[in-house]
Amino acid sequence: MPTVTIITDSAGDIPPNIAADLGIVVVPLSIRFGDEEFTDCVDLTPADFWAKCASSSALPETAAPSPGAFVAAFTAARDAGATGVVCLTISAELSGTYQSALTAAESLGDFDVAVIDTRAVTMAEGFLTIAAAEAARDGASVASIVELTAANIGRIGVIGSLDTLEHLKKGGRVGSAQALLGSVLAIKPLLELKDGKVGEAGRQRTRAKAISHLAKAILDGAPYARLAVAHGSAPDLDVLMAKIDGVECDSPIVVTEIGSVVGTHGGPGIIGICWMDRA
Q1: Which residues make Cβ contacts (< 8 Å) with residue 55, sequence separation at least 6?
Q2: Would 247 be classed as within a structural domain?
C-alpha cells in the first residue's frame, strides 16, 4: 500500500474505476441550479448533470470545495497511515480550488502535504493525477512525486470544440447577438488549454469540420504517452473515435464523460482530446 496518498478534485474527470484502482481520493466541487445545490459526482453524476441542463432554464454554477473539505480528506489520509499527501487541483486560473487546498494544507502543521496547481482541467489534470498515483503506488516520496508532476505539466494538452454557444451566452461570456449569429452560421468554436487557461483556438463552420479538425490535430501530434477523449453527451463520439483509430499511444485511449465543472461552461455536446506527450 502506498505511503503517500494522492488527492485531487472532481474537475479532472477521471473515470471512477481508474481512481478506485489507484486509490485516488476525489474531493468534489459543488454545482448549483438556481436554488438547488448538488455535490459533483456524489449526488449528481455526469449523466444526471446533462439531463438537468436539458430540463433547466437556469445556468448551472460551480463552487470550489471549502478548505474544510480538503482538511477532512488530508486528515483521513493521515489517520489511515499515510506519511504524506500530494494534492493536485484544477488550474488556479479557472477555480478557487487550489487556494482552498493550500489553506487546508497550511492548517495541518507537520503533516507532509504538497498542493500542486496542475494548470490544467479535465483529463489533462486527470493524467497528471494518474501519473502521480502510479508513482505513489510504486513507493515514491512526496518530494519525488512533486518533481515528477512539475516535469509532466509541460507535457499535457487539451483541444476541444463546443457544439453550442448557449451556455456561454447564459454565463455572459458572449453576447446574445454573437451567440445568435454563431447559431445561425453553425459556427463551432475550438478551444485549447494554454498557460492554465482555456481559450479560443479558432472556429469551424460545421460540427463535422470541427470533429475532423480535432482528429487531424491529434494524428499530427502523435506519438503520445497517454490520450483521452472527453465529452459531454456528444452524439458523435464514435465519429471522432473512428477518425483517431490507430493513433500511436503508449497506453489505451481513455474515454470519459465531462462532468459538471467543465460542462457548466461548455454545454452539451462539448468534446475534446486530452494528452500527455512522451517524455
Answers
A1: none
A2: yes
**Cα distances (Å, whole numbers) of residue 222 to 160, 212, 246, 247:** 17, 16, 10, 7
Has residue 131 been placed in a domain?
yes
**Is 254 found in the same domain as 194?**
yes
How far apart CA 111 and CA 92 sit, in angstroms, is: 23
Give the three-state DSSP class for 31.
strand
- Asked if residues 139 and 148 have their Cβ atoms less than 8 Å apart, the reply is no
Model confidence pTM above 0.70:
yes
Reduce the DSSP state of residue 233 to 3 states and report it. Answer: coil
Asked if 8 contacts 129 with a C-beta cutoff of 8 angstroms, the reply is yes
**Strand, coil or helix: 194:** strand
Domain boundary among 153, 170, 201: 153
Percent of the chain surpassing pLDDT 70: 92
N residues, the chain = 279
Residues 145 and 70 reside in one and the same domain: yes
Q: How many domains does the chain have?
A: 2
C-alpha cell at 114: 504538497
Q: Radius of gyration of the chain from Cα atoms?
A: 19
62's enclosing H/E stretch is: strand 61-63
| Residue after which a domain boundary falls, among 153, 176, 207 | 153
Domain with residue 218: its CATH number is 3.30.1180.10
Q: What domain range includes position 119?
A: 4-29+64-153
Query: Rounded to whole angstroms, how far apart are CA atoms 11 and 120?
Result: 9
147 and 165 in a common domain: no
Give the tens place of pLDDT for each residue, 44-90. Answer: 888 899 888 888 877 888 999 999 999 999 999 999 999 999 999 99
Res. 166 pLDDT band, cuts 50 70 90:
low
